[in-house]
Amino acid sequence: MRIFVLSGAGISAESGLGTFRDPDGTGIWSRFDPMKLATPEAFARDPETVQAFYNARRQNLLAAEPNAAHAALARLETELERRGGELVLVTQNIDDLHERAGSRRVLHMHGELLKARCMRCAEVTAWTGDLGTRDACPACGQRGGLRPHVVWFGEMPFGMDQIFAALAGADLFVAIGTSGSVYPAAGFVAEARASGIRTCEINLDPSDNAGLFDEHLYGPASASVPAWVDRLLADPRLAKAAPTG
Ligand code: BV8
Description:
The protein has helices spanning 28-31, 34-37, 40-45, 47-62, 68-82, 97-100, 160-168, 188-194, 221-234, and strands at residues 2-7, 86-91, 106-108, 111-118, 124-126, 146-150, 172-176, 198-203, 215-218. It has 245 residues and is of the alpha/beta class. The longest helix has 16 residues, at 47-62. The two termini are 21 Å apart. It binds ligand BV8.
C-alpha cells in the first residue's frame, strides 16, 4: 500500500513554528507581506531585509523540537516499509522537524531553511547560522551570491515530476496541517480524486479545499496524527507478515 502524505505548517505549529494564514491573524503572512519577503523580486530589491527574515526563522527552528505528529509519521514510514508498503512524505515546510523525528525520506517541495544556495555556482550547502549578503559560497568561494534554499512565490517548487509520479500510484492521499491555499500543492487533492484515490484531510479546522476530501479528521496534529496512524496500522487490510529474514 502506498500512502502519499502532504504536510504543511500546521504540523509544526505545536513545535512553536509559525503558520502563515491562521484566521486569528497571528499567521506569518498576516504580520509580514509575502510579496516583500518571499519573492525573487523582493530579494533582488532588498536582500538584507529578506535575509534577516529567514535568519530569524532559522534561529527559531534551531530552538524548536519535533512533536508527536512528526514522530507518528516517522513510525508510519518504518512500519509501512516493514509490511511491504510505502510512505511518500512531501512537505511544504522548510523546517527539518520531519527528519529530526526520524523520517528518512522527505521531499521538501518548497526547499529547506537550513540550506543555502549559491546563485553563482548553484551549489546547495547546509547553513545553520545567519546568512548575509557578503558570505562566501563554501563551494566556489565567491561572495554575495548566497540565498536561502527555499522556493519563493513565482518560483517552481522542487521535485514536481517525482511528486506527480508518486501521487499517480498512491492508494491514499492525506493532507496534514495545510490551508490548501498555495499552488501547486493545493491542487494535489484534485489530482488524487481524478485518479480515483481516497483522500483524507487532517487539520485543526476545514481547509480552503476541505470539500474535495472524502474523510476529515479535525483537531491539533499532535493528537490527531498519532491516532490516525494507530488506527491505520490496526486495519486488517494493512496487516502483512513481515518479510522473513
Ligand atoms: C508557482 C517557502 C509557477 C517560503 C512558500 C502570482 C504570482 C506568482 C505566483 C502566483 C500568483 N498567483 C498565484 C500564484 C501561484 C502561487 C500561489 O499559489 N499563490 C497563492 C498565495 C494564491 N504559487 C507559487 O508561486 C508557487 N510557484 O506557482 O510557480 C511557475 C511555473 C513555471 C515556472 C516557474 C514558476 C510557489 C509557492 C511556494 C511559495 N513558498 N514557502 C517560506 O516559507 O517563506 S509558500 C507558504 O505557503 C508556506 O511556506 C507554505 O509552504 C505554504 C502553504 O501554507 P500552509 O503550509 O498550508 O500553511 P498555512 O499557515 O497556510 O496553513 C496552516 C494550516 O494548519 C491551517 O489550515 C491551520 O488550520 C492548520 N493548523 C494550525 N495549527 C494546527 C493546524 N493543524 C493541525 N494542528 C495544529 N496544531
